[in-house]
Write a structure and sequence with these properties.
Strand content of chain B: under 5%
Shape of chain B: globular
Distance between the termini of chain B: 32 Å
Shape of chain A: globular
CATH class of chain A: Mainly Alpha
Number of helices of chain B: 10
Strand order of the largest sheet of chain A: 1-2
Strand content of chain A: under 5%
Oligomer: heterotetramer
CATH class of chain B: Mainly Alpha
CATH architecture of chain A: Up-down Bundle
Number of domains of chain A: 1
Order of helices and strands of chain B: HHHHHHHHHH
CATH topology of chain A: Ferritin
Helix content of chain B: 55-70%
Order of helices and strands of chain A: HHHHHHHHHHEEHHH
Structural class of chain A: mainly alpha
Number of helices of chain A: 13
Largest sheet of chain B: none
Number of strands of chain A: 2
CATH superfamily of chain A: Ferritin, core subunit, four-helix bundle
Number of strands of chain B: 0
Helix content of chain A: 55-70%
């Protein structure tokens, strides 16, 4: 049992200087002093974000083998590859804060770590790939654009890079859905059905309402989160609703309305029970995603062992 | 191009189809790994390989299209198994990591010697395509050759798995060197590489590397056990069912 | 039959679809084993099971057809994943022998209690179908229950595999008891079995047997983690691509 | 090194009685005296036949999951199930001669035992399933009808039973191809393509020409083979050629002609090089079939062990 009494971090004289730097818009870099809580919150957010990219390869990756044209297959492979790359940058960014890849992977595979709720929804038709690009990446971009301005240098720079790639994915997803919305009856049905299933999860993935979001206050003070979940969600809705309607699709929210005064599209009530169930990760789909990740991990154990053995052997030879 | 005989044109079409089909089917098998590789870095590498292979497939289908006006997508997503001209080596399921990387190595080595020779073709579009692909292909071969080294010289388990893959794949590789109808004549005319001259070069380089990696190369089958490219394994229709399902489900669709 | 309300008719159609889809998808998974079972006798047994299940699927689709004039083949081979109403338990890949037989056991036990209760339905076609199927189903349950005994009480390896299957399948089983829209009303009217009354009966009998076979039943998930039957796993579209590929490849075909 | 000199079996006094029984059309039964060579030949033939049924589940079995209608799926499952059942009867028939299932299975999986060359051809389209039923089962029936009259009781009775089921499969295959031959252009193409690929292998599966068939003489003397390969092949051709032509299909043999004098359809030269290559079993497809069998066998090892352990446990309990 530890009996040390930690000094109240709010009394640390370095805190004032740190907060002043943030206020001036300076970036905090890996070697710089930072409060433990700042480090902890960042590791939590960045590793969750990395896991989301890693798990996020699955719902779309399943469709690589089924993409219906050479061009779509190529685009989708490149996109899932980008997601793997994003996972890589983000794991590196978390490592600059002292987290290790092994620990993070272990936390993911054991079910302790979270990842974005959105990836626990299954992709059931080919149009889901387009809808994920348009809505899910669209929502992600709003969030990432905000995070690109965050106070921690490595995270901010990773976000800048990721955002520019995501913008590309977003365009491709939109183009795909617009094609199908103007396509054959079967294609139109498929696009509408995908919208019906992905609309609400896309709103939810931006997080709980501000009053239910426990971390928002501290994250905002330290320049990690520059906007609230509800603000980001509103931006997402305002951009996407008119485009979806123009494509001739209907949005599965009977209460959705345009508010002249604020210039905002106002959505109806969100089913947060579903959100929390998905976030908590007990559902069958969560299990399936983690099973897939665990299977790939265990199935690849002998490869990683061979790699290590070969590396050791090469080093020994080089030392001779 | 305009002075091709009808026979030469038909044989070129056939060869471009075979080249495209090998790449397309391999891209499909490699694509199955994306998201499931043993390390995240290899998800990225496999995705790279698969994209290059798909790109090569498109290039070959476009070379074919220049000769017969065919539609690359219709060929990729509309043909039945019996109309494909890929080699069986590419059709087999992805297997484990050793199976995938060994196939990649054997095929990359074949593609490298084929493309090198194709740079001397008297058919300019082929010459140019080969020149361009060869640059990518050298990188592929480096990557797969390094993996064979890691697996062959890694652990007992990795050597055992790679050797098991070699037992199956080595005899299958012979099909890569079976000429298509009319191909020997086009080789004699300098339009296409001469497969019978390439095989010893491929065999020498692969044998040498496999041997250096602690793997023992099995015997070839008898000559009559080598199948022509219109003979497929039952893995092909299974693969195509998955690959073509969406494209074929809506026959009215004009754009995907 | 003529005095069904439109609402009752719609709900019956939905339930017959769910019944048919469970059987059809399970038949598909079991069919994958034919030719690959661990002993020749089980190739035969699995083929028997799969045929009975396919037969049940046809029966339910015919009961639906009596209500809405639909075509059973068009429903089986023409619907997309989102239009299916099977439970996810049936969608999962066949896995190993323990996975397959445990799923069979859990489903057979469910089907037995459902069919027993359905014999009391006020809808005669359902009553008659249930009566007939129940005879086959008792044999299925005997077969799968015996296998659980052999696997649970066989070797450490067989127990470990069966337990691992149970960890995944037990929470999935809850979806079997989620009522379809309008179903509770039809249960109250005596047209359909009351799922909430069946669940404890199913749970009691499966728990008892699993326990006797040395297996420990995991906890249920939270109530909100139980999905309705319009929520599927990504295994379903994959399965359908294979199952429907041939039928959909030639849209002009009138007879297969 | 064994130095025993076996007595010339032709001098065994029981041989004359044995051959007289066969001449009278009596069946030889398991307990009866029989020459070693008779036993050896029967074990060879029956176990090969059993293996053929067992391996023969594969080329059609692959299509169970892809059958395009409920009825076809049902029929195909029943058919492959019948093949498993035929394998069972035949392994039992070979056991009556002293062969063990383990030895036979081992001979198959190690590649020592042969099975019908026909199962080393792949099924590439759905129409192959129909064509296998019509041609391959059609050829098998001709052979099996002949074997139903053979002198060894258990083999003869197995053949009677198998033949009646095969007749059913043959009818179903024919009905399927007739449907497609009268169907859409794509169905017609598929049927013709299947005929192109299966015609010659079906002729070859009935075995080499009489002059190249080493076992025919002794098998015929002992009433095991009542007709020569060429006679059986001619029966097959005479029945199937008119039906295939009537279906509007063309047979891939430019030399095929009707001989008025004999009333026979005369086929062109058969490519026996291909046949021997397939029989010898070095080709890629042979390897794939045996791999599939070996995989199922190894993959099921733990199940068979559990079965044995459970059996031992139950016996021990019963003995308590």
């Amino acid at each position: 049992m530890s009996m040390t009494t930690a000094q109240d971090p709010r009394l640390d004289p370095r805190l004032e200087a740190f907060e002043a730097r943030i206020a001036r818009g300076e970036k905090i870099e890996p070697g710089d002093w930072m409060p433990d809580e700042y480090r902890r919150q960042l590791i939590r957010m960045i590793s969750q974000h990395a896991h989301s990219e890693y798990v996020g390869m699955l719902p779309e990756g399943e469709w690589i083998t089924r993409a219906p044209s050479l061009r779509r297959k190529m685009i989708l492979m490149a996109k899932v590859q980008d997601e793997a790359g994003h996972g890589q940058y983000l794991y590196h960014a978390a490592e600059t804060l002292g987290a290790t890849r092994e620990d993070m992977m272990d936390a993911l595979l054991s079910g302790r770590a979270k990842y974005s709720s959105i990836f626990n929804y299954p992709s059931l038709t080919w149009a889901d790939v387009g809808m994920i690009g348009w809505l899910v990446d669209g929502a992600a971009i709003k969030n990432q654009t905000m995070l690109a301005g965050c106070s921690y240098g490595p995270y901010s720079r990773a976000m800048v890079r990721i955002c520019s790639e995501e913008t590309f994915h977003h365009k491709q997803g939109k183009e795909m859905i617009l094609t199908y919305a103007a396509g054959t009856p079967a294609q139109r049905r498929m696009a509408q059905d995908a919208l019906n299933r992905w609309w609400w999860p896309s709103l939810m993935m931006l997080g709980p309402h501000d009053q239910d979001s426990p971390n928002t206050a501290v994250l905002s003070r330290w320049g990690i989160k520059l906007k609230s979940n509800d603000e980001v969600r509103q931006e997402f809705i305002n951009e996407h609703v008119p485009e979806l309607l123009e494509a001739g699709l209907s949005i599965p929210d009977p209460d959705l309305r345009f508010d002249e005064a604020s210039g905002n599209w106002i959505h109806g009530p969100i089913n947060w029970d579903e959100f929390w169930a998905v976030v908590k990760g007990n559902g069958p789909m969560n299990r399936a995603r983690l099973e897939a990740r665990r299977f790939a991990h265990e199935d690849g154990a002998w490869v990683r062992e061979a790699l290590a053995a070969y590396g050791a052997r090469s080093q020994a030879q080089a030392a001779d | 191009m305009t002075d091709l005989t009808p026979q030469a044109r038909a044989t070129l079409i056939l060869r471009f189809t075979a080249l495209a089909d090998d790449e397309l089917i391999l891209a499909q098998r490699n694509g199955e790994w994306i998201g499931h590789a043993p390390i995240l870095e290899e998800d990225i590498a496999l995705a790279n390989l698969a994209q290059d292979e798909l790109g090569h497939a498109e290039t070959w289908l476009r070379l074919r299209a220049e000769l017969d006006g065919s539609d690359p997508d219709a060929l990729a997503f509309g043909r039945d198994a019996t109309e494909f001209r890929c080699a069986q080596l590419l059709e087999y399921p992805r297997g484990d990591w050793a199976f995938t990387l060994l196939r990649q190595f054997l095929f990359d080595a074949y593609e490298s010697v084929w493309l090198s020779a194709a740079r001397a073709s008297s058919y300019r579009p082929l010459r140019e395509a080969a020149e361009k692909m060869l640059r990518e292909e050298r990188f592929h071969l480096q990557h797969s050759a390094l993996w064979i080294q890691r697996l062959g010289l890694g652990t007992d388990e990795s050597r055992r798995r790679t050797q098991a893959a070699l037992e199956l794949q080595w005899p299958l590789s012979a099909q890569l060197f079976v000429p298509l109808p009319g191909e020997a004549e086009l080789a004699a005319q300098g339009l296409l590489p001469d497969l019978s001259a390439l095989r010893p070069r491929w065999e020498e380089s692969t044998r040498q590397h496999l041997g250096a990696c602690g793997l023992s190369v099995p015997a070839w089958g008898a000559p009559e056990d080598v199948w022509s490219r219109d003979q497929h394994s039952p893995h092909l229709p299974e693969l195509l069912a998955e690959m073509q399902g969406v494209a074929r489900a809506d026959p009215e669709a004009v754009a995907w």
